[in-house]
Each structure stands twice: as C-alpha cells, then as structure tokens.
Design brief:
Elements: H1 5-9, H2 16-27, H3 31-38, H4 43-52, H5 55-65, H6 71-76, H7 79-100, H8 103-111, H9 115-124, H10 127-137, H11 144-147, E1 154-156, H12 161-170, E2 180-184, E3 190-195, H13 196-200, E4 219-220, H14 225-235, E5 239-243, E6 249-254, H15 255-273, H16 285-311, H17 314-319, H18 322-350, H19 359-389, H20 392-422, H21 427-454
Parallel strand pairs: 1-2, 4-5
Antiparallel strand pairs: 2-3, 5-6
Length: 457
C-alpha cells in the first residue's frame, strides 16, 4: 500500500504537530498513546525526537520504547546523544542491536565510540561480527573501506546469461538492491560491468564477455571518501566495486552511500568555515563553549592587529572625527568581497575545479571581478557619503580606499585558500580567519593613510 506520509503527518520529517503531541503524552505519562504514536513514525524521525529531547525526557523515552528501540533508530541518533543512549541501555543491549545491523551501520556506530566502550561491545559480539567490524576499522577513517557493502554481485566473463541469472536466483547477496553486475577475468579482477536491464534482455546463450561494458571505474579501499564522492559525480556512476591493493573486488559502494557522504562533507565544510568542528546544538552550553573558544581566541588575536593599525593614527582621527565613522565601512565591504571570492575558490578546490596550472587565471579573474565591483560600490557609497557630510574630499578618499581594499580582497580571497591547500591544510578551516585579518587591517590602513596624505597634510 502506498502511504502519503506528508498528508498523514502534516509534512515530511518530525513536524511540530507530532512533536507537540508526543510532548503532551510524555508530560501526561500516557505511555500507551506515546508509544503508539512514536512507533508509527519512521526510524529517522524517532531518532530526531530522541535527539532534540532533554536528558530527563530522553531517558524516559528509551524506557518506554524498551525492546522496540531498533538498530535503525540508534544509527540515526546524533553522535553525541547516541553515546548517552548507549550508556543507558547498556553494553548487552547495544551489542544485540549492532549484531542485527548491516555491517556498515555497525561500523559507523562503533567508530564514533570511545576506545573503552568499543572494546566492551566488540568483546560481547559473536566472533564473526566482531571480526568483520575490526577488518573495517583497520581501514583509514573516512575511507572507502569503512563504508563499503561486503556483499557483491560478480560473475566470470565466460559465463552465459542463463548461468548468471541462475546464480543471481541462488545467491543470497542478490537480496541487496544493486544496479550492475561486475564481471571478473580469470584472475578474479573486475574488468567491466553488465547493467541488469541489458542482462535480462539478452539471449540466454549469450556469453557475458560479449555484453560487458569495459569502462569500469574501481575504487581502492584506502581511498578518501571525498575522492570517492568526486569520482561518482564526475563520471556519473551508480555503483563501483571496491578493490584491495591486489586489484581484487572486496565490496561495493553505491550512489546512496555517496549521497550520505556528500551531505556529511557539506556539513563539515560549513562547520569549518564557522570555526566549529561539529554541530553542538544538543551539547551542554559548557561543552559548546569549550569547542567554540579556540577559534574565537584566534579571531581575537587577529583583531588586535587591526586595533594596532588604528592606534598609529589616533592623532589623525582626533583631528577629523568623521574618519572614525567611515573607516569600518571600508573594512566591512572589503571583508564581504573577500568572503565571496574565498567561497568560490574553496568550493572549486573541493570539487577539483581549481587545477594547479589554472591558479594564475583564477587569481587574475577574481581580482578583476573584485575591482569591477569596487568601481560601482565606490561611486554609490561615495555619493552617499557626500550627501551625508557634504565633504567631497572625504568621499573621494573613501572611494579610493574601497577600490584598494577590494583589490586586496580579490587577491587574498583567492590566494589564501590556494596556498593553504598547497601546504596540505584544509582551506575551509582557517581561510576566513586569515582573510578577515587581512581585509580589516588593510582596509583601515589604506583609508587612514590616504586621509593623512590628502586631508590632514
């Protein structure tokens, strides 16, 4: 039966209407209605409700769910909250849930636990499951080997279509959703693939080699997930075989896995741009403050540079107070222009659109873009300042400072990410801090020097 989920719940995901009903049942201690309603939701939505609930409510929810706390719910709970849930339900219950999960989900949960909890859970799992998990954990973090599906549909290139279909009927691995069948040579190395639709439309006696698409891209188990995501996007593939260092297939990765990777990578880059390592919405305010302080301290230190620049022009500012009200505009506008440039370049680096031999062109283009914008902004703002203060000299100095700082913003907004990437530092992490320091300091400096030379000489 097809269910119109949005019609039933008032929208997709955990809606405010459902949340309020659950909150009311919980407050009234109406456990029967609460359990009936929450179990009617998708696992991901149940996980969201557990995640956003406070500590006391969360404990009560877990107790009410009891044996109906499924593995799919545990996987979708926020990492920080999941640790407290695991602590509440205990090692034995957690081990039971992990044993029932797909191996890739089990690895995802285990790898986000502390070493002691990992050890306790793995020791209670059946040897087969714990060995599979340990094999995955042996691969580098955020690598293809960590998320690959162990099940794989692969056939020999000398088989017929009839033999292949019989194999699929008998193979339990074919219970998994798959798009292509991988074709192996005599050394059991993947040499191509056959699409399912092509397979079923071919004659029964057809040799697989004759309908194989040999344009196959394999993924090494050690490869970083960011690189894997790029491969899927660049070459528009739906599934890829994961191979070991000997070139033999050991698993598969599908486009569904890559969608999750892409979402996580995007979130991670957004957090890095804000100087945050991960979402802390459900942390205590003390823990959130601890995680945010380091970059705030770095930002404070760069702000001292701007302050130091201004201090050298204190006499000039005293003589012409109007300068103090205008110079923040120069720094702010330059910072915004630099951020636009930086965002474009950081994205280009992440998507491999910025090639090494293309660096000079990118920098030139961003400088010219910033300068073009600066001419329009300097005219508009210059006219506005003249109308406010009736001083054409100040307006001209402001316009000149805007053009100068926009040039700096274009140059540094494009150069800083490229330089950081060159020295193997993630440009999403600290480009913003350095760029803000440069545009603020140079914005103040250029404006005040021009004012000193042309207005106060």
């Amino acid at each position: 039966m097809v269910t119109d989920f949005a019609a039933q719940t008032g929208g997709y995901g955990l809606t405010s209407h459902i949340q309020h009903k659950l909150d009311d049942f919980l407050a009234e201690q109406n456990n029967t209605e609460f359990k009936s309603l929450i179990l009617s939701l998708y696992s991901a939505d149940i996980a969201d409700y557990i995640t956003i609930s406070n500590r006391d409510a969360r404990k009560e929810i877990i107790e009410i769910l009891g044996d109906d706390l499924f593995g799919d719910i545990l996987v979708n709970i926020d990492n920080h909250v999941r640790n407290s849930v695991i602590e509440q339900i205990g090692v034995d219950k957690t081990s039971q849930l992990i044993h029932e999960m797909d191996i890739e989900d089990a690895v995802y949960i285990i790898e986000n636990l502390d070493k002691e909890t990992q050890k306790n859970i793995l020791s209670t799992l059946p040897d087969t499951t714990s060995n599979q998990i340990n094999e995955r954990l042996a691969y580098p973090e955020n690598s293809a080997g960590r998320i690959m599906h162990p099940s794989k549909i692969a056939v020999m290139d000398y088989w017929t279509v009839s033999q292949t279909i019989d194999y699929l009927r008998k193979n339990k691995s074919s219970d998994e959703i798959f798009y292509d069948i991988f074709v192996l040579d005599l050394k059991h190395k993947p040499v191509g693939s056959v699409n399912i639709s092509k397979l079923i439309s071919s004659p029964a006696h057809q040799i697989i080699r004759g309908i194989t698409d040999h344009e196959l891209i394999t993924v090494n188990a050690q490869l970083d997930l960011g690189e894997v995501a790029f491969i899927f996007k660049q070459y528009d593939i739906k599934t890829a075989p994961v191979v070991n260092n000997f070139g033999r297939i050991i698993g598969t990765i599908s486009v569904n896995d890559i969608i999750e990777v892409a979402v996580e990578e995007t979130e991670e880059d957004l957090f890095k741009l804000g100087g945050i390592s991960q979402t802390d919405l459900h942390f205590s305010f003390i823990d959130s403050a601890k995680k945010r302080l380091p970059w705030l301290v770095v930002n404070m230190m760069t702000a001292f540079i701007s302050s130091h620049v201004i201090s050298h022009f204190s006499d000039e500012i005293e003589k012409m107070v109007i300068l103090a009200s205008i110079m923040p505009m120069v720094a702010s506008m330059g910072g915004n222009a630099g951020t636009q440039t930086m965002t474009i370049v950081v994205r280009a680096i992440a998507l491999k659109d910025a090639l090494t031999n293309d660096t000079p062109r990118i920098i030139r283009k961003e400088i010219m873009t910033s300068l073009t914008s600066s001419f329009f902004i300097s005219i508009l703002a210059g006219v506005a300042i003249y109308l406010l203060y009736r001083d054409y000299e100040v307006s001209l100095i402001f316009a000149a400072a805007i053009v100068t700082n926009f040039f700096t913003a274009g140059l540094m907004g494009s150069s800083i990410p490229i330089i950081l990437n060159k020295i193997k530092v993630d440009p999403a992490v600290c480009s913003g801090i350095f760029l803000t320091a440069v545009t603020d300091s140079f914005g103040f400096l250029s404006f005040l020097i021009l004012a000193k030379i042309f207005l106060l000489s």
